[in-house]
Input
Amino acid sequence: MSPQGGCPQIGAVKARNSGLRVWVQSIGTVILIVSAPLTFALGPSQTASAHESTAGARSQWAAQSPMPVISRGVPAYTNDTCALASAANDSNYDTQWWTCGTPSTGAPLYLAYDLSGVPAASRGQVLVLWYNDPQTMHYDYTFVGVHPCCTLVPIAIPSAYTLEGNAAPGGTLPSSGWVALATVSGNALHSRQHSLNLTGYNWLRMNITASVGSTKDYGVILNLDIHDASAGFQDDWIFYGDSITEGAMAHQSLSEFGGSGTWAQLINAARPSNFPAFESGAIGGTLSADGVNGINGWLALFSGRYAGLAYGTNDAIWSVNPAIFYDNYVTLVQAVLAAGKVPIVPKIPWGCTPPILANVPSLNEKIDALYAAYPQVIQGPDLWAYFQANQSLMSSDCVHPTGQGSFGMRKQWADAMLSRVYSPPTLQLSSSTATPTAGQAFSMTVTAKNSDGTTATGYTGTVHFTSSDSSPGVALPPNSTLTGGQGTFSATLIKAGSQTITGTDTVTASITGTLTTSVRAAPASRLVLASAATPTAGTSFSFNVTAQDGFANTDTAYAGTVHFTSSDSSSGVVLPPDSTLTNGQGAFSATLTTAGSQSITGTDTVTASITGKLTVNVGPAGAASLILDAPGSAKAGQAFTVTVTLKDQYGNVATGYRGTVHFATSDPSPMAVVPADYTYTVADAGTRQFSVTLWTIPSQTVSATDTVNASLTQFKWVNVNLI
Output
């Protein structure tokens, strides 16, 4: 049998108009038949939980875990006499595998794919997804709503089938060796998805034994895609809603209305690495209450992560109380969350009927309240604003969009999800205060933001915090997750001035954000006095006073008055008067007169604990006097010691004196000895001892005089005694 099935291709299949319609409730059963080499077995009640755990372990947005289609263009086979098998897996969703025959247990119809050319790593864990829409627009043709209006029949839906694998080599369709992987009977849905493990299999076959349709539509019409699910089911979607969602999200291009592809194709065009699996789970005429009645059964059949919830137009038409509408949506959201999936809720579309105009605004207010109460909800497109701004896209019934409007709505959905799910978010950090105080904890909020500015409620990454402030005592939050895209944390910074706190995803460094804040000093707890000068006795020198907190930050708000004291109580000491500081700082001058280590202390006049001390080494001034120290008496002819010390005007030894001293005596004896002229050195430090010998009794003078400055002089009488 040839891959093309041996018959001409049937032309593009277009959607039939759905209108505002309601259908009856019934979901067929699913039986998974597992045999080697599958690694796990799932019963009907286990299917959903298994999918939830797989999805939950993966990354937080679909772009990180793509589910590419691996069946596109692979050799396709059918046993129908005129259906074109390749129409089921080509890139044109306006064409479908459309059989002429009607399947039965005795004469099943099948569609088989040769996957041997697909890398084995891409055809282990897979998602098999078939869809009959837009032939049957309503997700469940048997669903009965709370306000039933009519009965619609299905169009060529497979109602009983088995998905089978085969390990035979590719190239020739095997006639035996098929292994049942999943069996479905009593199906009433226009699309179904199955999570399968195809490890070891080269072939996948859908073997159909029954279908359901109108009198002339008992064959089978469908497209069938196989997605690589080795990275999980993150990029798997379903959109529940009413007939407006039916028209927008059906698997058709709407090319006759200017459309360019299905919702998945719009995503793929913007992000070539992603081709999401999706179902249109909408049923015309349904209200939010209908969604509540069906949601748990529908979710049990859904392997993926994202569930759109798009009800409200019919609630407005039937004047449902907004409080009841809100409670219904809470039930829907909670059901999606409990299933481990992510709810997406759009605004209800604008329409021009009186009930819509009168009632939808209050219902949309409830959706705003839902966003606030459940930040895990991803905000879908604002369809009220879109159609209100584009009223020409609304049909004459004032309820449903035109074909062009349906594609516009589809693009709104694609654009919103590209921004809010497929684009990695950024982190926005904000603080409860613009100027936190050093050493005091303050709160900050971290929000994951989509590229369009909305909150990325589906973000589940872990945030690591760093800061430009590396001072001891800085306290940052530990690695943390956000809830519904937001989290509030506490931080403590130490260093005053402009500082930053940065949050970064621990896995994807490009998901980051920075808070810049101006840290102000804590109240001053000390004064810091500093000077670069080495002061000289009697000479004014400058010093600075800074009011600091306990972290060495300048307290620019310090308004106290500083009183100054000094360890030098000599006359001639000059200290600043009591003074205030400007922006926590002040420049002052002081004069000290006692050489050596001295201190100046500044103390707050009210709070004595706010104090600080400056210690300086005061140097002596230049020599102002010469002091000759000699004994009162000496024996004739015996040497004795005299000391010559130079002092400044304040009595400090003039250690810097480098002059020359000349000695003289009144003793006329040629045997009298006085020192030769002597020039002082650094080692002398302003004082030196000399030897003198006198001979003539009864008394003589000894004098010392600077050779340049005659005012530096002194003599002493010495009594000379006989030996």
Q: What stands out?
A: Residues 1-60 have pLDDT under 50 and may be disordered. The longest helix spans residues 354-373. The first strand starts at residue 29 and ends at 31. The chain is about 15% helix and 30% strand.
